[in-house]
From TrEMBL:
Family listed: Belongs to the ORC4 family.
Function (record text): Component of the origin recognition complex (ORC) that binds origins of replication.
Annotated ranges, domain AAA+ ATPase: 59-220
PANTHER family: ORIGIN RECOGNITION COMPLEX SUBUNIT 4
Protein name per the record: Origin recognition complex subunit 4
Gene3D superfamilies: P-loop containing nucleotide triphosphate hydrolases (3.40.50.300)
Amino acid sequence: MSKRKVKDDHMPVGECITQVQEVFRERFCCQKLPEQPEGVESQHKHLLELLKRTAVHGESNSVLIVGPRGAGKTMLLKCVLRDLLEEKEVEKNLLQVHLNGLLQTDDRIALKEITRQLNLENVVGDKVFGSFAETLGFLLEALKKGDRSSSRPVLFVLDEFDLFAHHKNQTLLYNLFDVSQSAQAPIAVVGVTCRLDVLELLEKRVKSRFSHRQIHLLSSLTFPQYAERVRTQLSLPDDFPDDKFAQDWNASVKNLCEDKSVEEVLQRHFNSSKDYRMMHMLLMLCLSRVSVAKPNIKPADVLEASKMCFTDAKANMLHGLSILELCLVIAMKHLNDVYEGEPFNLQMVHNEFKKFLHRKSSSMYNFEQPVIMKAFEHLQQLELIRPVDSSSAKTQREYQLMRLMLDHSQIMEALQKYPQCPTDVKQWAMSAFG
Ligand SMILES: Nc1ncnc2c1ncn2[C@@H]1O[C@H](COP(=O)(O)OP(=O)(O)OP(=O)(O)O)[C@@H](O)[C@H]1O
């Protein structure tokens, strides 16, 4: 929908809500880059200058962007590239190659992708090269201008950089860093990684060719700053089509952030993660509860959204188990308590389960051995239990040693929510020893 400038007129609430959703979808789903990425101004300047040196002056460079997941590494790089490409000459000249360690899992695939992204497939044709270096050299040579005097600058972005270090002989990294150091062609190599110890992964000859420039995105945010960030992220911009609605919305967001219960929720999120990605997830869930009938966010929405963010995926899986499977998990929990986390086998679990059954008169839980075996296998498929040693596959299934992949609190939490859980099963789970 187009952003009509009504300003003094009021739009119908329904239309305002649609606009609100559009604004926040763009902001939270990374469809629109922020004008100036907040909190990383110096890193932005540093990276922009570095890449400019390659794009404009033809210098070669290499740099690593290091920071935890969701810290904004990709966003920083995208903002820098956007600003860099604003210069006409750069836009015309600079070539980009984007590789990802999750996709280009070996150097042969990476080289194919480089050729494809540089549009050199036809130039390479059926030529056979002796080594990786030869191919890369050929590709860079092919990019030289007609008079061979200068080469077009190429930016290599290696996302999930640490994964490239696992490639055989680290050939790709060695060659890229070698070119960047020896000034054969103007290239900039930008590695993006969440591993702080990434340099340790590099072989000596690779490390010595790297410039050792690193840009760190480590957050030193305090809680008041975090709360303020939540407020600004939830606020509507000045150019929102309906002024009155935007003012009311922003005032209600301010009140919301000052609410005691909301502050507690935010504190909990702040303690577990300070990054934008987690914050956006929480805010997105809050916004999904906004409707025409309730055109603002209430503290209860934040509480509900937070609960959804923190639900444990494994504990959730327990809700789908049959009662027999649940009983086996409880038996394993008791075994874990008694033997202090030592592995167990199906026979031991079955015996533990039988102890519980003996105390009961009803035959409701009488199951044949094959049925128990099937339930046990299902738990293994769900990865709620795992064999201690996968090589012991030859051992008879009943005696294969297993470990429970759930902890006490996950089981107890799941039991509380299990639909119509029989009371005796609940009591059995809570009893100290089987
Ligand atoms: N300074 C910022 N301002 C606004 N949004 C941000 C900022 N930093 C990060 N984000 C948002 O946080 C989310 C995660 O950012 P990004 O993908 O850049 O993280 P990353 O460090 O590259 O993560 P990963 O290591 O998983 O690739 C994105 O949706 C992005 O828009």
